[in-house]
Sequence to fold (505 residues):
Amino acid sequence: MNKRLAVVVMVLSIPVVWSVAVKALGLPSFILPPPGLVLTALRDESSYLLQHTQITLNEALMGYLVANAISISLALSFLYCSPLENFATPWLIFIRNIPFVTVSSILVITMGDSPASKLVIVILMTFYPILANLSKGLKSVKPVLLDRMQVLHASRWQIFRHIRLPSALPYFVAAHEISFTGSIVAAIVSEYMFSRKGLGYVILYSMAQYRADILYAATLICCSLSIGAYLTVKLIESRIFAWKRDLRD
Amino acid sequence: MSVIELRQVSKTFCNNGDTVHALGGVDLTLAEGELVALIGPSGCGKTTLLRIAAGLEQPTDGNVAINNRPPAKACCAHQVGVAFQQPALVDSLTALQNVQLTLDITGASKNSFLPRELLERFGLGDSMHRYPHQLSGGMLQRVNIACAMVHHPAVLLLDEPFGALDDMNREHLGEWLRQVLDKTRQTTLFITHSRPEAVYLAKRIVVMSRGRIAAIIPVDLPEPRTRQLRTSDAFLRLDAIVNRAVEAVNGGGTDK
Fold:
């Protein structure tokens, strides 16, 4: 089965499996609503859902951009200043491994329901894959290319631009497959934990109100956002690495 | 006038506490336009010698000069071109862009070749817009050599450029390289494991053993060298002489 057909089969299967499950399990609609009810909720509550989706997207994108800025700066600093990498690595591993729930609780106490607290959560959950991959990519240059550059007396900038950057690009793009989708998940989770806005809050609120239709509608939106983020990265990847295609392609 | 000059060059490496003497007291001089082959078994110090000449390694002792300058300064003046055994090509650049990359770094001078013309001369006119993964082994090596010589350096250092190729391709590319160098007249030091390749290409063959020069064999074959030469008595006699020299120092022949 080719890749596109597999996607079509999956998209068509979801409402079918869902409808079958509703019939087979016989659960009330406030626990497992049928697809039609969720679509109605999507239509009737569209402005409400759109408003919260925008908030979530803004938080995710803002955090993702800041995480990129931090990761790129650190990766470049580590490349040209290895003592800094030696110093920072234990700190980064420590920060990376603090349990998410703990960080959230500390942020609730210190910052309350502010955009900054959610930004911090998104950054903490997304910066490390970008930093680790970019750092590795910048150092994974074929030694023979560095020898060539040395013989040609290339400047540090020329080596970076012509050799290190192309070498790091596949690693960098691969990191975004994780981090871009992760930023949306992180934003939703941070809203779920301490917010009165965004899709995370919608999920929590609709759950408390037994509005499964809105809960499922919000879930569909979350999935669509993450899949959209993933496909965006894949599209960019296919454009950047068009040269990898074989002649027969 | 000597272009490459190595005087009493020694190199010692420390490997897990052990001292390895890669080179010991090597003296070698290459005149302008001369083509010298380094031959010898693996681990005898050929690549170390070439890397020292290219300024990629520092000798532990002795002096190295390229046009009367230390190798690093010669590199600074873009007088050195190196083709490594593994093609030093950027995967995301086409053959033409890879050759152009050398000029982007060194800057074009009045002597430098035009990348497009050079690749056409190298028989890659139809393939210059292909990426490295779309080229055959022989094509890759021709692009590799084009990258090393497009800025027309005074000195070319070739580290087994055809080592990964089959015999037929190797012979063909050897003849091609000789034709190219007959025209460019660049001083060339090249490493090979193939006796016929060394005899066909070089004006002198340096046999190395355990970090030292064991023998220097002049190759007094007629010029220009043609394919027919390979079956001549003079060629076969020289091949036998080189084989004996290698066997004498190592107790065995070279790869071919």
Notes: Chain A touches chain B through 21 residues (CB under 8 Å). Chain A has a mean pLDDT of 91.
